[in-house]
Amino acid sequence: MKIASWNVNSLNVRLPHLEQWLRESQPDVVGLQETKLEDERFPDTALAGMGYRSVFAGQKTYNGVAILARGHAIEDVRVGIPGFEDAQQRVIAATVNGIRIVNFYVVNGQSVGSEKFDYKLRWLQAAHAMLADDIARHPDMVVLGDFNIAPADIDVHNPKRWQSSVMCSAQERDALAAMADLGLHDSFRLHCSEAGHHSWWDYRLAAFDRDWGLRIDLVLVSEALRARCSAAGIDRTPRGWERPSDHTPVWAQVD
Fold first, then answer.
1. Are 33 and 6 in contact (CB under 8 A)?
2. Is the dihedral of CA 100, 234, 6, 218 positive or negative?
3. What's the confidence (pLDDT) of residue 85?
4. Chain-centre distance of CA 196, in angstroms?
5. What pLDDT is attached to residue 166?
6. Alpha-helical regions (H) of the chain
7. Dihedral, CA atoms, 130, 125, 59, 72, nearest 10 degrees?
8. pLDDT at 229
9. What's the pLDDT at 219?
10. CA 85/CA 88 separation, integer angstroms
11. What is the pTM of this model?
12. Nearest-angstrom CA–CA distance, 41 and 38
């Protein structure tokens, strides 16, 4: 199974990009973030015409998550983090072909020390508690999405410039490391140890052309799936299309 994640930054704008990428890349499962659509406007009929079933939780203008699957049923769907009241649609989970897929659109946090940053840390703590429970019940698990956290300096184009900034702060990285301690492995780093690989580039300052990016989109595989993760990668191509999302797809192959 090729399992992918993509923050599309509005399906209103990026649906043709998604359709093109699905045709060309043929992933089996895709987690989408920032769909920015109410549920009644989600393009499930168009995606079904391409062979993809879909489940989704959206809201107007902001946030929104979805899981697509080709050739398999999407079962045991859950939206949100149990016990954590949040009007923002940032989490959807489901089981596809025996693998539990958890799709996160993690809070950005705005700036270190802000109210939104405090909300991000609370959100991450609640997500950790959810994953601790889920992985005990679903050992075959993939946690994917836009984490809005660069795991380490190797994932940042200019670590000195980003030091202690949002997405690179010690608090955020500690929270991500705590998730990893549950038995989750960064699939990309299972296959590549080099710097210079990014999944998000700011729209400003020609950041993509200069490769001033961060690797903040992740596919984490559980310990039970680690040996079966045969490949992983970042598909930079859609970031170069006209009117692109500021993120590009990331993926892992689970045999």
1. yes
2. positive
3. 94
4. 19
5. 98
6. 11-25, 44-48, 115-137, 159-162, 170-180, 187-191, 207-210, 223-226
7. -30
8. 98
9. 99
10. 9
11. 0.98
12. 6
- Hey, how many other C-beta atoms are within 10 angstroms of the C-beta on 139? 13
- Angle subtended at Cα 198 by Cα 193 and Cα 204, rounded to the nearest 5 degrees: 155
> Which pLDDT belongs to residue 174?
98
Low-confidence ranges of the chain (pLDDT < 70): none
Cβ-based neighbours of 240, under 8 Å, separated by 6 or more: 208
Give bridge partners of residue 100 from the DSSP assignment.
95, 141
* Contact status, residue 172 vs residue 162, Cβ threshold 8 Å: no
CA atoms within 13 A on the CB side of 97: 14
Identify the CA nearest to 220 among candidates 1, 29, 3.
3
Write the CA distances from 96 to 77, 133, 145, 182, 230, integer angstroms. 10, 19, 16, 21, 18
Active site residues: 105, 146
Residue 104: partners with Cβ closer than 8 Å, 6 or more residues away = 33, 65, 90, 91, 127, 143, 144, 145, 146, 147
* Structure tokens belonging to residue 11: 């399906």
DSSP symbol at 170: H
